[in-house]
Every structure is written in C-alpha cells, then in structure tokens.
Amino acid sequence: MNDFSHGIDMVECARLLGSINRHGERFLQRVFTQAELDYCLGRKREIEHLAGRFAAKEAVLKVLGTGWTNGISWTDIEVLNESSGRPRVYLTGRCRQIADELGLTDIQISISHIATHAIASAIGVAGGGADR
Fold first, then answer.
1. pTM metric for this prediction
2. What is the pLDDT of residues 22-61, one digit of tens each?
3. Which one of 6, 8, 52, 105 has the fewest beta carbons within 10 angstroms of its own beta carbon?
4. Domain that holds residue 90
5. 30 in a structural domain
6. Mind listing the pLDDT tens digit for each residue in 50-66?
C-alpha cells in the first residue's frame, strides 16, 4: 500500500521579479540551480518559468513537511524538464536525506503559470511508485 503527501504553492510573478531586481544574480544563484537557470533565462515568459520552479520548490518542502529549516538549501530541490516537457524533481543534500527518512520513492509535480501567477502541486509517494 502507498502513502501519499501533498503540497501546493502559488507565486506572484511580479513579487519574484521584484526580488530578482533587488538582489540580482545573487538571488538567482541562491534559489535556482544552473540547469534551472539555463532552462528559464532567455525564454519567452522567463519570469513565469522561474516562478513555476519557485512554487514547485515550496510545494516539495510541504511534501517533506520541513519548511526552510534544518540545513535545507533552495538548490537541494531541482526542477528539470524531461524531453517530453514533463517537469521532474531531483533532490540532493538535506532534502534527499529527509525524503529517504520518510520513505519517499517518488515526488510527482505539476506546474502551471500565467502572466501574473505560477502554481505548483507536488505529491510524494512512500512505499511504492517509481524510483527517482
């Protein structure tokens, strides 16, 4: 039998843009991995794509039940797209440790965005499902 946990988060694109404008490259490097930045920056609607990944990271933390505590780094959660376009979560560091302690075998995410907002939903599966 599988156990599930769910997290959801919504981000206002203008607020994220304000943080980027205020803190610049330092903010981007702290929050996003280089692979995430390579995917998002320069794309049409790049702020929406960044906001979607930001929301996905927050949703994953809700699945883990931790928030930004206990040595967790933003880049411990990476959201990359498969060749089909499907977003996929990759965990490292403290987040990987916590997921293993919880017995999570998979985290599925869905991201959607419009000009003003991005939303992401994450579902953690323990006790079955695909390996990450």
1. 0.91
2. 999 999 999 999 999 999 999 999 999 999 999 999 999 9
3. 6
4. 3-126
5. yes
6. 999 999 999 999 999 98
Largest pairwise CA distance in the chain: 47
Q: Is residue 45 part of a domain?
A: yes
The three-state (H, E, C) secondary structure of 62-128, written as one string: HHHCCCCCCCCCHHHEEEEECCCCCEEEEECHHHHHHHHHHCEEEEEEEEEECCCEEEEEEEEEECC
Q: Count CB atoms within 10 A of the CB of residue 26.
A: 10
Average pLDDT, the chain: 92
Establish if 103 belongs to a structural domain.
yes
Pairing of β 3-12 and β 87-91: unpaired
For residues 88 and 76, give the distance between their C-alpha atoms in angstroms, rounded to a whole number.
Answer: 14
Residue from 74, 83, 92 nearest 132 by CA: 92
Contact criterion met (CB below 8 Å) for 22 and 13: no
Q: What are phi and psi of 129, to 5 degrees?
A: 90, -175
**Domain count along the chain:** 1
CATH number (domain holding residue 18): 3.90.470.20
